[in-house]
Structures are given as C-alpha cells and as structure tokens.
Write a structure and sequence with these properties.
With about 210 residues, this protein is mainly alpha-helical. The protein is built from 13 helices and three strands, in the order αααααβββαααααααα. The chain is globular.
Length: about 210
C-alpha cells in the first residue's frame, strides 16, 4: 500500500535487485545417522521421527495425530494440513508396527505423542526439538548432527521424488495445495522447465513405420 501511495524509491529498488536469490534448503538426513538416533531414542521421539521421515508429516501434524486418524484396514494415516488440504499417507511396515502397539492404549482424542510420554501430557514443539538434539549428541558421541525434524520431512519428500520423479505424488505426501510449494522440498533434485519441455513433440516416422 505504501508503494502504491508514494511510489517505489529508486534506491530501494536497487537494493532489492542486489538481494541474493532465495534457494531451497538442501539438508537431507543420512540413513545411517537417522538409524543411529532412532535406535537410542525414547518411544516418544521414535514416533515423532518415523511420522516425519516415513510419513512426511510436519511438526504440528506429528504432535496432534490421534488414533482416529490411523486406518489400519487400508494401511494409511490421514488428516488435514494447515492449508486445509487433505492428506492420506500409506504406512511403512515399521510405522504400522509402532502405531499398532500404541493405539490400543490411546485415549479417544489423545494425541499419540502424548500416549507414549511419561506424564501423558500434550507435548510442546520445543520438547521434541530439545530431545532430538540431546539424542543426536549421544548417538554421535558429542560431535553433533545438523538436522531437524523438518529435515526428516524434506528427506521423505526427496526420496519419493527420486523413486518416482512424480512431483504430484510428492505434493500428495506433503499435503500441499500447490505443487509450487512442493518444489521447494525437492531442491536441486528438481530440474527447471525449459521451452523445449513445452514444445509439441514431432512424431518419429521411423518408429511409426516399425509399429506399422
């Protein structure tokens, strides 16, 4: 509104042009590091890590997931994202085993992350992040590991893209309303569109003769 009323200051425009271009974060979680932390994690942290890494859930979804959102008959978990988009994610084998052990003990509307906590109270975001950091330090003998819960979600997205090369499937996993948001999770693995990609393909006459 300020720009519309007063115009754009030329000096400000020059400064904006010099700003570095935004680039997607590329931090992925190595499999050996993930397994090392998972092996010594508490039940609560194991659940959080697997929901983020195997199901691609964001932190808020991890903290609020209930047994009502686990469909064992179809092998899925489902819910609504912060953008009101619906998601349904297939269960990996180990996530299914873990949830099958937890769900029978969960209250009707109790977050599963609270079910496996010692005091069965809702878990704050800082609690999981702190516990992850401490467990990383133990697993790496104090050397530290530079990945977060959100990096686990990014790793799930990248693996799915590497396996399928289908941005729409990654979009469904992450529950994004638009594939544009999904593209940021792909990072440098995603190739930009070119004009050649949009050109109609000319028929290969040699191949057509072979088919005929």
């Amino acid at each position: 509104m300020f720009i519309l009323n007063h115009g754009l200051n030329p000096n400000l425009l020059t400064a904006l042009r010099k700003l570095p271009r935004a680039t997607p974060r590329e931090q992925l979680v190595p499999g050996d590091e993930f397994e090392a932390v998972l092996a010594i994690a508490s039940n609560r942290l194991q659940l959080a890590m697997l929901l983020a890494r195997d199901a691609g859930l964001r932190r808020a979804a991890v903290e609020t997931l209930t047994q009502a959102q686990v469909d064992f008959d179809h092998g899925e978990i489902f819910g609504t994202t912060k953008n009101k988009a619906r998601y349904r994610v297939p269960l990996t084998k180990r996530l299914r085993v873990l949830l099958a052990a937890i769900c029978p003990f969960a209250g009707k509307d109790e977050p599963l992350i609270a079910t496996v906590s010692l005091n069965r109270k809702p878990v704050k975001a800082c609690t999981i992040l702190w516990e992850l950091k401490r467990t990383q330090e133990r697993a790496s003998a104090g050397r530290g590991m530079a990945w977060s819960m959100h990096d686990l979600r990014r790793t799930a997205a990248r693996q799915l893209y590497d396996n399928t090369r289908d941005i729409r499937k990654v979009q469904r996993l992450l529950g994004h309303a638009s594939p544009i948001a999904t593209w940021w999770y792909i990072g440098n693995a995603g190739q930009p569109l070119t004009s050649e990609d949009l050109e109609p393909k000319q028929p290969n006459l040699h191949e057509e003769r072979k088919l005929a």
